[in-house]
Structures are given as C-alpha cells and as structure tokens.
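Q: A reviewer asked whether we had any structural model of the full assembly, not just the individual parts. We don't, so I'm hoping you can provide one. Inputs are below.
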Amino acid sequence: MKSTTLKLGLLCAVLAGGAIRALALDGGVVIANPGVAADSLTADALKNIYTAKTKYWDGGQNIVIAVLPDKTDAALQQASGMDASQFKTFWQRLAFSGRGQEPKSADDAAALVALVASTKGAIAIVPADAALTGVKKIDIK
Amino acid sequence: MKYPNHKLILTLTATILAVGSAKAFELSSTTYSNLPPIDFHGYLSQGFLDSSSYNYLGDTTRGSFLFSEAGFNASMNPFPNTRITAQAFSYDVGQDVGKYDVGLDYASIEYTVNDYFGVRAGRVRRPEGIYNDIQDVDLARTSVLLPQGMYDARWRDFYESVDGGEFFGTFPLSKAGSLSYETFAGVANPAPDGGLATYLRSQLPANVQLDAVNSPVEGGVQLWWNTPLNGLRIGGMGEYISGAGDLTTVQTPVGPKNGATTYSVWVYQTSVEYLWKSWTLQTEYYNKTRTYPTGAYINSDSWYVSAAYRFNKWFEAGPYYTEYYADTTQRGNSLDYQKDAALSLRFDLKSWWVFKVEGHFIHGTGLLEDSIQPTPQDDRGWFMLAVKTTFSF
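A: Here is a predicted structure for the entire assembly that you could use as a starting point for your response.
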C-alpha cells in the first residue's frame, strides 16, 4: 500500500512537472519576429510584456505587440490577465499619456503573421492553426 | 446655448471624416530608410453638458457644447532602450477655460535600463491615482465626467503635466506580486486661460487684477502594488507642491500696488482597482492640505466608488458615487461639499468611435466655486446630463 501510494505520488509529481514545463494558451500560439533572440518565455515574462512592465528585448530592441481582435481573445486573457476590452483600454491609457505605444492590429491571421515577420521586435498571439511563415514560435513555460 | 466657433466646427468635422475610417498610421522606415518607424495616434472628443440648476463646467443651464478635447501624438524608438514621444493638445471647458488653445501636452525622452529602472525627462504626465495622467482621454474610461472633486476637468493645465522628469520601474515580489513605482519632480505650468487662473480671478475683489499664476515646483511618488490576485492592484501617492500662488495688481486710491500670494500643498491619494471578468471596480480617496505662510491652512478631500460592466463588444455601463469636501471642517455645509451619483452608458460603435451618455444627481455646490458669485446654497439636489462622442486613430 505504501509503495503504491508513493508511486502514485511520484507519478502525480511527474505529470505536474510536465504541465509546468509548457503552458498551452487557449487556442493560440505565441510568435515573434525572427530577429528576437528568445526562443521561450515564462508565463510571468509573457505577462510582463503584455502589461508593459517589460518594454524591450535583451539588446534594447523595443517590443512591439501585435493583436488579432476577436480571434484570440481567450489566449490574450491568459497571457495578460485582462479581457480584450480591458487590454485595449490599458494600452490606450499608456499611449495617450506618453508611457507606451498601442499594439498594432491586423484583420486576419495571415496579415498578423506577415506583420510580425516584417516588424522588428514584434510579438503576437495567433490562432493555433495559423501558418507561421517567416516568424518564430515562442514556447511558453 | 453656447456653441464652439464655426471655423473650429468645420475643421473638426473634416478631421472626423478623415479619421473616421483611418487606422493609426506609421511612417515606415522603407520610406525614409535611415529613420526608425514613427507611430502617430490621435483622438477628438466633442461633448454636451446640460444642468437643471446652476451653471457648472460652463453655461450649462442653457446647454453647452463648449466641452471638447483633441490630442495628436507621435512616438519613435531611435536607439536601443530609448523612446521619444510628444503630444499636442487642445481643449475647452465652458467659456473661460482652455478656449481651444493648442499646447504641448507632453514631450519626453525615455531611457529604460531594465524592468526595475528607467528615466523619463521633459514635459511628463504626472502620475496620481488611476486617472490623473489620462483624465482627458475619454477612451480610457466608461464615464464622461470623472469624479470632479478628484479629477477636475477645469484644472488639467495645473495637475496633468510637469516640466522635469521621473524615474520608473517594477520590482517583482515573488509570491506577493510586484511593486511598480514612478517618482517625479518638476515645475507645473498653469495656463493663463486655465482652470487655476480662472478660479483665482473669480476669487479676487473687483479692484484686484490677476497678473500671473506662479509655476510651482512639485515632487512626489506613485506606488502600485500589483497583488497576487489577478486584476487587483492597490496604489498610494504622495506629493508636495511648493510656491503655488499668484501675482496681482491692486488698484488703490493712491495708485496700483503689487500683491502676491503663495502657499504650499501636500497631497496624498489611495487607490484600489480590481478587474474581474467583465467588471472594472474602482475606489479612491484624495486629501489635500493648502498651507499659507501665516500658518493658516485648508484641508479638502474627496472619494468615490465605481463599478463598470462590459456586456458585449459594443456596450458597457456603470454607476459611480463621489463626495467632495472643500473644507473638511465644514462637512455639513452644502456650500462646501458636492455629492454626485452618476450612471454612465458607453457605446463602442466602431473600434475608432465611442459614444457616451450619462446622468448625474448632484447635491451641494462646493465645486461651482469659479462659475458663480456668490455660490448658491443647494439643499434639494440638481441634475446634470453629459453626452460625449470620441473618434480615435
């Protein structure tokens, strides 16, 4: 009995550790411009980016957030802790008080991927089934 | 009913039509190959105020369209970790404040060393509570009028920006969330047609002329604890203002005589904001003490609670209740307080077009200070309607 309990406990610990290693955003994946050095981010680091606490990549390139309104709202909420309306208001406050730049937006997934591919420092959440041409995928841990 | 001047209406209308289908635009580095991209954004707001009794924020008993704001900004990142930004701004509140004069709202250069420390210098927006640095950005809230005892629309020229600089950053607190700070210092620049000048003129006897408003030195710190509970942040702000006051000329029987008034001000403000699902819940308390060289002082305070709920992409609504006391030793005198219950409806008609309508039931006349002499006593309450539309890009 004790050994069975121990094995189950170890199994739970392994499964929990595996879940912590990779965070799946609801229906979305994080992409970045190929010039961005990072290949992965922690969930906290991603949130810091989406809440303007981190504004620059290592090396000084400014972070440019790009969004796809309506299509990735659930994933955006996971990343930022804000729903789409709160997120938009948050960044408008920063942009019109001289403290930040409003995220860029695109009309569809292909346009968003193209925007990220052509914008230095860009990061975005795209639908999980989007073609990732010219961008790199960022793993969230 | 008071209308803005017609040339301005035509200019604003043309701008509205141009902005109506516009998105934020950017000068691409492919156009000017050595120039980093420059982002441009702007907004244009036009409002209407109508009150059942007493003129407040304009000639409102007859309905007033003299309630407008427009801003245009540009920003760029010319070097690593560096950003330059500036915004021009024009506004009008009633017939005496703002008058559509175009001014430099902010202009700064910012260098971010890391997440913990950055510096911003130039004309910077002053951080104070949830809304001080964005009080004229109609897009950034549900209501038309912010709680006026704390965010007086007539006083933005004095409270919104300082010429100086600030340090800013965020420290992680492990399981306790994080702590964000902004500490600022500089000189305020009250406008000759601003709210402070208008208020001072209204307080002077007939034989006294206001020559100038002092540009006081200010310094303070705003802290935000971003708690471990997602969406909850708690803030505290403290500030000291030195050398506020004015210069006057007094007409005496023996000729004009120069006069001067100076005082210092201590301010503190506490804030709580909770974003929970589609709710935005906020409460703040503000306290100000003005001290004269004689040692005499006046303490005033204000507080509010508000709740807003976003029903869907295009509709949000919410009430707020606020109280303001011009003199905390006179809390029972309706001449010295103003209590306001408001209900706001916000319609996001397009991503770039917002329309709001709002009703107020107000008791007291403590904030009518500069519009009517002598200030009337109110014991029954009065109503105010506020309507506003904003275009942005």
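A: Points you may want to mention in the reply: The radius of gyration of chain B is 22 Å. The longest helix of chain B spans residues 6-20.
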